[in-house]
Design a protein that fits this description.
With 143 residues, this protein is mainly alpha-helical. The chain has three domains: 1-46, Wheat Germ Agglutinin (Isolectin 2), domain 1 (2-Layer Sandwich); 48-78; 81-142, no CATH class. The chain has five helices and four strands.
Length: 143
């Protein structure tokens, strides 16, 4: 195991914990991956717009579209029960068995509503759906 010292946190870490960099003598960045991530998070919190623009631009390229498609496929394979529950709830809503309200069920704001399976994704809970605005839906998942 080869070790290297990070210039940011001054910790000696395993060589594999540093990103590759072809321009350096040892082929690795001077800062460890954790320190780089912390810096990026601080930059993002100050101004997320450049990051969003960059992500949007990448998502429109062939490579970006392929990455999105592959990521979605991995997610569907990892959580098949979620997809089944979403299909069942969508079909029930389209068929008129579940009524989608005009307003968020948490904050009563008018917004584009998202279905939230608040009891889980098992068969007996397929139709246990609350319709929430994106803000409330995100808040529910963070609890």
């Amino acid at each position: 195991m080869v070790a290297k010292q990070c210039i940011k946190c001054n910790e000696e870490k395993e060589f594999s914990l540093f990103h590759r960099d072809a321009q350096t003598k040892d082929g690795r960045k001077a800062k460890c991956a954790k320190c780089i991530l912390k810096e990026w998070k601080i930059k993002y919190d100050k101004d997320p717009l450049p990051f969003r623009r960059s992500a949007k631009k990448y998502s429109l390229t062939g490579k970006g579209k392929k990455a999105i498609r592959e990521g979605a496929e991995r997610y569907r394979k990892r959580y098949p029960e979620k997809q089944i529950a979403q299909w069942k709830a969508r079909n029930a809503r389209v068929g008129g068995h579940i009524k989608k309200p005009d307003k968020c069920e948490e904050c009563n704001n008018k917004a584009t509503l998202q279905g939230h399976h608040y009891k889980g994704y098992t068969k007996e809970n397929w139709y246990a759906v609350k319709f929430l605005c994106p803000k409330c839906h995100t808040k529910e998942h963070k609890l």
